[in-house]
Input
Amino acid sequence: MSLVNCSGVDARTATAGAPAPGLYFSPGFIDLQVNGFAGVDYNHPQTTLEDIARSLHAQFATGVTRLYPTVITGAPTEMAACLRNLAIAREQLDEGDAIAGFHVEGPHIAPDDGPRGAHPRQWVRPPDTSEFDRWQEAARGLIRIVTISPEYPGTPAYIEHIVARGVVASIGHTQADASQLADAVAAGASLSTHLGNGAHQLLRRHPNYIWDQLADDRLMAGFIVDGIHLGAAFLKSAIRAKGIERSVLVTDASTPAGAAPGRYLLADQPVDLTHDGRVVLAGTDRLAGSALFMNRGVANLIRLAGLSLADAVRMATENPARAAHLQPNPSDVVEFRVTDSGQIEVVRTWLAGRLICGAPEPSL
Output
C-alpha cells in the first residue's frame, strides 16, 4: 500500500515542502529502536505485561504498528531477564504481534564518554558469541537487531555469527577507525544506529567514524529526528549522503516518552524528562534516549530536512522494514490528518487488519 491522499492529491509524486492538509492513509509506522514508552521501561525484568500492553497502545496512537523493544547495556543476567520478559509479553498479550522482534543495543560498545552515550560504563564488554546465544535463547529466537562497535578485535567473527542467524548487525556507539568499520561491513554489518549520536562532542574533521559510515552505501542509517539529537544542517546533509532509500526514521524513545515531565528510570538509571522535551541522565545534560513520537518524527522530517510527505513516510515504513528484513503486513495501516500547521495527527491505526486505535467509522 502506498501513501494515499483522501482529498484527491497525488501524494506519491508530491514535492518537498508543506504537504496538502487533509486525510491520508499509509502503511503503519515501524520503529526499530524504542527503549520504553508512556512511563514503561523495557529495560526492567519486572515490568508487568499490563504496563507493556499500555505502552503498546500509546504507540499505536502515534501510528506505530510494529516495533522493536530495545534492551541496552546491562548486567548479563539482567539483559537476559529483560529479553525473557519481553518475549513472554509478545506471546501472551493480545497486541503482542506488534512486537516484530527485539533490538539489543550494547553491551559491546565503546567504553569512553561520548560514544558510550547513556549506557552504564561498568557493563560495557567485548563481543561474545556465547552471550549472544544465551540472549537469543532467553528471547525465544526473537532478537532481530544487535548494535555493536567494531573496535574490538573479535567483532568481524561476532558479526558473521549473528548475521548467519538472521540478525541485523548495526554499527553504533563506536569510536572505530576506517579499517575496523570496513571489516565490520565486509563481515555483514548493514545498518548504522542513530547516526550522528552516541559520538564524541569533538571529532577530527576527517577521517572520522561518522563520515566513514555516511560514505558507505552498503550501510543504511537510522536518524533520531526530534529536533534535539540532530541539527537541521546535519540531518539534511546526512540524508543527502545516504539517499532517501538508505535513511530510516527512529525514535530511540525511552521510558518518559508520552509521559509528563519528571523523573523516571531507564535500566535502573534515573532519567529526567525536561519541560523542553529532552530526556537526560538525572543531574546531567547527557541525552538518554528521546521523547519522540513517530508521527512527530515524520512531520519533523518535512520541517527540518525539507522532505516531501511521501519520502518522510517512506523513512517511517518501507525503509525500516527493509533495514530489519521485515516482511510488512499490507493490513498494517495508519490513517492520519495533516493539519494546516503541518502537524501529523493520527486518526486510526490498524494492526493486521484489526482496528487498534481510533473510533470505528459509523455504519451506514
